[in-house]
Design goal:
Elements: E1 8-19, E2 22-33, E3 37-41, H1 48-56, E4 63-68, E5 71-73, H2 77-80, E6 84-87, H3 99-109, H4 114-127, H5 143-154, E7 161-165, H6 173-188, E8 192-197, H7 200-203, E9 208-213, E10 216-221, H8 223-228, E11 232-238, H9 242-249, E12 255-261, E13 264-270, H10 276-281, E14 291-295, H11 299-306, H12 308-311
Parallel strand pairs: 3-8, 3-9, 6-7, 7-8
Antiparallel strand pairs: 1-2, 1-4, 4-5, 9-10, 11-13, 11-14, 12-13
């Protein structure tokens, strides 16, 4: 079913960005619906940040068309910037200004009226636990505190669409979890969000994701749907000599990938093989294994089957 145009926040067709002879983004098609967290998942150099910068109007596409919130990008980029928020990968606020001074400055950049400005600054400082830090210089804050300030600044003008470029790469796991809860609060209040990440657990929190590799989209959809359609079954093996078992299994017909996780070897078996557990149990390489069991796939398995090792 095709979503109505009013429910689409991003539509991109044939998006290409070349830097000399290098295609950082190569033929990207996107349709992102309103009211969701949509993730770009991929390793460094996969084109995530370049794609995001084209969607925000900061980079001009070499080829292709982009519409964001019904506006043509980059032609309408000046109008668009008041409707979106953007949190960069590296902390980009002023370290020699206090929390309050940074928020005041950015509120004037966004053109908020004075009364509205004061109300919104109070709201975001309260929501993101910055009130007691209002006189702290941004350059003296911890990673988690800077993250909260950056998010507060990005949503200060109540954008319809929020872009987050690897927003949790420099914070601890507890701060990451708390940050994601704040993102779902924003979605509940009507904000749509596009986020780039290389963390599998974060990508699994998204409503939908695009897996990128070498500037191309390898897969697109809800994480559970991608797991169900990845074309492989997952079997884990316990026992001695796991490294040797892995070496022998790699390259075997029907085995798409194998990786050790602690005391287990996780093997992706082509789903054309009806009984993957018996298939591996009958291999002489697994003789002596103490356990061979089929397990639930995860998003890392999807990533492997859609990119690199699983596509060779």
């Amino acid at each position: 079913m095709i979503a109505p145009a009013s429910d689409i926040v991003v539509r991109a067709e044939g998006l290409v960005k070349k830097f000399k002879n290098f295609r950082a983004v190569d033929g990207l098609d996107l349709t992102i619906e309103r009211g969701m967290i949509y993730g770009f998942l991929g390793p460094n150099g996969s084109g995530k940040t370049t794609a995001m910068r084209m969607l925000t109007g900061l980079l001009t596409p070499t080829e292709g068309t982009v519409e964001v919130l019904g506006l043509s990008v980059p032609k309408d980029a000046e109008t668009l910037k008041y409707k979106i928020g953007y949190m960069t990968q590296t902390f980009s606020l002023y370290g020699d200004l206090t929390v309050l001074e940074n928020l005041n400055f950015m509120s004037t950049i966004y053109g908020l009226p004075r009364k509205k400005r004061q109300d919104r600054i109070r709201e975001v400082m309260d929501r993101y636990e910055l009130t007691d830090l209002k006189d702290r210089f941004a350059g003296k804050m911890s990673g988690g505190q800077r993250q909260r300030l950056a998010l507060a600044t990005a949503v200060l003008h109540e954008p319809q669409l929020l872009f987050l470029d690897e927003p949790t790469s420099a914070v601890d796991p507890e701060s990451r979890r708390h940050f994601w809860e704040q993102l779902f609060d924003l979605v509940e209040n009507g904000t749509s969000i596009i986020v780039t990440t290389h963390f599998m657990d974060e990508a699994e929190r998204c409503h939908k994701i695009a897996i990128l590799e070498a500037g191309q989209k390898r897969a697109d959809g809800a994480p559970k749907e991608l797991m169900a359609a990845m074309g492989a079954n997952v079997v884990e093996i316990e026992g001695p000599n796991l490294r040797e078992i892995r070496r022998h299994l790699l390259g075997t017909a029907g085995v798409m990938a194998a990786a050790q996780l602690g005391a287990r070897l996780r093997v992706l078996v082509d789903d054309d093989i009806r009984d993957p557990r018996s298939f591996l149990k009958e291999k002489p390489e697994t003789d002596g294994a103490t356990l061979i069991e089929q397990v639930r796939p995860n998003l890392e398995d999807v990533f492997v089957t859609a990119t690199g090792e699983g596509r060779q």
